[in-house]
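BUG: 3D viewer hangs when loading the predicted structure for this chain

Environment: internal workstation, default settings.
Expected: structure renders.
Actual: progress bar stalls at 90%.

Input used:
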Amino acid sequence: MDKIRALTGSQGGPRPWATFVAPGGEPVPPEATPSARPRAVSSVRFMQGAARIRWTWDETTRAYLRAQGSAPFTDADGRPLRFSNIVFLWVEVNESDCRDAAGNPTPVLTLTGEGDALVLHSGVEQQGRWVRPSLTDPPTLVDRKGRPLMLVPGPSWIHLMPVEVSVFVRR
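Structure tokens produced before the viewer hung:
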């Protein structure tokens, strides 16, 4: 991590690609409660390439735990990583003319416009949309009626999902 910080000139942790704001440009207040009708969820699973990914709500720690296959997602000391919010944003993914070291096409993600969204926090799910008019605008998360979808304070994991990939929710 020190090498990464030295290369980026950062003394802190990684910076997010975006900060979510409520429609109208106001920052989302941490204490805000969701406006959409949440539904209880115990786990979510999906395939990412050949990997089977599963997020499970842990009521004891009030956090989501990630597993890939049967292996828990852990830090360098083997402790499970815990997240307060899991956000799925479905985006268009196209191939570019560039190739990676193995010769595979490099994907290009469309991060402007709008698309479906799924937000998990506090053991519940909320469905909605993400909206980002331009690359200089922060994305917003809204429910189907255009009301803000709020995140809770704490670490968040954002999945940028190809539009053709399904996520399976277990209640």
